[in-house]
Amino acid sequence: MKPHLNPPLRAVAVSGGMQRPSRAVSLAEHLLGLVGEQLHCEQQLIELGQLAPQLAGALWRSQLPDAVEQQLAAVEQADILIVSTPVYRGSYTGLFKHFFDFIDQDALIDTPVLLAATGGSERHALMIDHQLRPLFSFFQARTLPLGVYATDKDFLDYRLHDEALIQRSQLAVQRALPLLELKRHAQTAAAAVAAA
Question: 81 vs 56, 84, 165, CA distance in Å?
């Protein structure tokens, strides 16, 4: 059986929110939905709050249960990664960092990453550039130039309602599309070679 020449891209969102409902989860879902509107892709949302009991105490990846291993593999195989975390004491949550400590350091090379965060006020908006961007630069990922930062007032019943932020989210996704088209062309070419 010949492989499909246009397999769906894999869009994965990771939320560092510790509870549900969570503004970080809502922001991740919103951005993931925008990607899905623009591209033929498989979508997956990973909520670290739900994985916390299985991550706690693990020092090595080999100590993690299969459920967490599957989520790590999904991140490593993503064609686009969306990350969203609440700001906690000026940075991403400890659980967020703990999860990414288990990601293979070469797995995200050249992967487009859309950075997003939520906080109580605008004072923490630079966390995206001062904390998240360096973390994913370590992985040699392609952090997208436009991040999305949302405050409590941008949400109504845990759904984005601020029009300026909604437009910024759309623009952030639009800026990702050229990189994803390059990835799509590379996949199509590889599938055509395999089918020949």
Answer: 23, 10, 20
Stated pTM of the model: 0.90
Q: Which long-range contacts (CB under 8 A, 24 or more apart) does 125-132 make?
A: 125/149, 127/87, 127/90, 127/91, 127/92, 131/90, 131/91, 131/92, 132/83, 132/85, 132/92
pLDDT in tens, 53-76: 998 888 999 999 999 999 999 999
CA distance 107 to 70: 14
* pLDDT digit string, tens, across residues 111-129: 999 999 999 888 888 899 9
Q: Which structural domains are found in the chain, ordered by start?
A: 9-195 (3.40.50.360)
